[in-house]
Amino acid sequence: MEAELASSKWRIPLLILSSILLILGTCTGPLFTRLYFLHGGKSYWLSAGLETTACPLILLPLTISYINRRRKGGDSGSFFLIKPYLYKCSAIAGLLFGLVNFFYASGSSALPVSTSALIYSSQLSFTAVFAYFLVSQRFNIYSTNTIVSLTLGAVILGFQSSSDAPEGESMSHYVMGFVLMLLAALLNAFVLPFMELAYKKAKQEINYSLVMEFNMMMGVFATSFCALGWFISTDFKDIVQEAKESDLGETNYYLVLALIAISWQGTLLGINGVIFCSSSLLSGILLTCTVPLTEVLGVIFFHEKFNASKGISLVLSIWGFLSYFYGEFKYTNNQENKSSSQLESHLITPHDDDIVC
């Protein structure tokens, strides 16, 4: 898939756009989610469902893409391109992502933004492992160093958790939030290479319109999963009262819900785009690279504590991030040098037709 995209003039712009969506969504989504819980929000299922409920917005670019295909005469008449195999994969990924969202929302209710961001960054190490088994992702000393650094950072946060619990919150609730956030990172790390594997195994041409369809279907199944949990838990009965009692005010309460939905939808669309243009491991790397910015935003907007354990964990995250990209830089240079050497050898070595007897 990546080889097919390499010749496309749209690959780099799409990768850049997807990376921007991923980074912006990952930085703002946790802030709005935490804002919801800090000002009277109580429903984990509602918060989880909001992370994918904006998926119908994708119908707009899909409509534009469909009109463009019809105009060029390259369309069979079907609005949707997705076939049964990818549809089934999107359903599985969507249900798993719905569970990820529930774990994330539950963890966010108990943890400061800065802490949850650092814990969630551990998904990179899990992504690397799953990517190795599912899509044969290669490893080197630099990617291994990244995995060790991020895992160690999460462990340090775990040992120092007692000093980070928000005021008035029980230690048991905080520990539960820590565990659920770690589970969210683990499960999300499986979903990323699973999507990459689905694209590779699909028996149809993969283009960006198809990626958006896959994204939307994931959102439909994830939202349906969370909506079912929302109704079973009867949380839906309290939303009107929750809005009236919110410290933000009723109007701002609904505005925050809308911002949660838009932010996380941008993240999901960005993740799918990066996997389509590059790999699941790169999407994990970009998710991790937002940690320093999310840390700073959490301290600025929510006046969260920034203790020594967070500082060490942050340094380890940055070190792991830089280590990975240095390794990728060296690998790319080596591949280019090998290609140049092979080309020179081919040009210098005489062919049979050139030998005069």
Characterization of this structure:
The chain is an all-alpha fold and 357 residues long. The protein has helices at 2-6, 11-38, 44-50, 59-72, 84-108, 113-120, 123-135, 141-159, 171-201, 208-232, 239-245, 250-277, 280-289, 291-302, 308-348. The protein is globular and about 65 Å long.
Indicate the low-confidence ranges by residue numbers: 1-7, 350-357
Largest sheet entry: none
Structural class: mainly alpha
Strand content: under 5%
Put simply, the count of helices is 15
Q: What's the overall average pLDDT, rounded?
A: 83
End-to-end separation: 46 Å
**Series of secondary-structure elements, N-terminal to C-terminal:** HHHHHHHHHHHHHHH
Radius of gyration computed on alpha carbons: 23 Å
The tally of strands reads: 0
Q: What is the overall shape?
A: globular
Helicity, as a percent range? over 70%
Protein name: Probable purine permease
Organism: Lithospermum erythrorhizon (Purple gromwell)
GO molecular function, one term: purine nucleoside transmembrane transporter activity
Keywords: Membrane, Transmembrane, Transmembrane helix, Transport
Please give the structural blueprint.
Layout: H1 2-6, H2 11-38, H3 44-50, H4 59-72, H5 84-108, H6 113-120, H7 123-135, H8 141-159, H9 171-201, H10 208-232, H11 239-245, H12 250-277, H13 280-289, H14 291-302, H15 308-348
Helix pairs in contact: 2-12, 2-13, 2-14, 3-5, 3-10, 4-10, 5-9, 5-10, 6-14, 7-8, 7-9, 7-13, 8-15, 9-12, 9-13, 10-12, 12-13
